[in-house]
Design goal:
Blueprint (H helix, E strand, L loop, with lengths): L2 H22 L17 H17 L4 H7 L6 H10 L8 H9 L2 H4 L1
Helix pairs in contact: 2-5
């Protein structure tokens, strides 16, 4: 491979990486590492909600995109719960609903 060919290849790789980097920031929870599996522990629920709220703000994720992406952060019983209630949840109460839906009533209020 000639020096010119190598430079051209390197530039294509850089361009592709730059393009992919932009695409990875398509305002989703895809890179968020926080997960919630349904533990009925107020502290774990609150920690999850705090983590994803901060992530949402830092990544500038819209409310619609957050609702669409939330299922990738839910595992186990919470994923099943979300499938049942997602169409009834209003944006303003989405995280409060998560707290109410998965925590014992005394902790969710």
């Amino acid at each position: 491979m000639s020096k010119d060919q190598f430079s051209s290849l390197l530039q294509k790789i850089r361009d592709a990486h730059s393009h992919n980097k932009c695409n990875m920031n398509t305002k989703s929870f895809a890179q968020c590492i926080s997960r919630y599996g349904g533990e009925r522990d107020h502290n774990k629920v609150q920690e999850f909600i705090t983590n994803i709220t901060i992530y949402k703000k830092v990544e500038n994720i819209s409310d619609d995109d957050a609702l669409k992406g939330l299922p990738i952060l839910l595992t186990g019983v919470t994923d099943t719960w979300w499938d049942r209630v997602k169409n009834d949840i209003k944006m303003e109460s989405r995280f409060g609903s998560l707290k109410i839906g998965v925590c014992p009533k005394t902790l969710a209020s």
